Amino acid sequence: MSPMFFRFFHRKWVKAMGRVLDSRLHSVQNSHAKWAFIVQFVGPDGQKTRLEVMGDSRTLGVAVGATVPLLVSPDGKKAVFDRTDPQINATEVVKSRKKAEEERFRRQLEN
Fold this sequence. Notes:
The protein is of the alpha+beta class and 111 residues long. Helices cover 25% and strands 39% of the residues.
């Protein structure tokens, strides 16, 4: 699903932050693992909710114990990782790691 279609499809969904409680390997296809996560968050109705959220190859940093950005359906019965959020967007995570590594390396040269 392209970023534009992802945003369009979830345009009425509410942003929320969730805590990853557990994970399991859901399936492996073509040497790519697909993970399922149990995420707890406060839903649109103000109640704590736990849902299974499927992992996405376009996200990084989703692990047990992590706090992650979500998009939650208006009825609170579905949730997906907000893969456009720079905190878990794979492209942005890789860029920030590379920048931090370059900065660390530069500081070592100056000392």
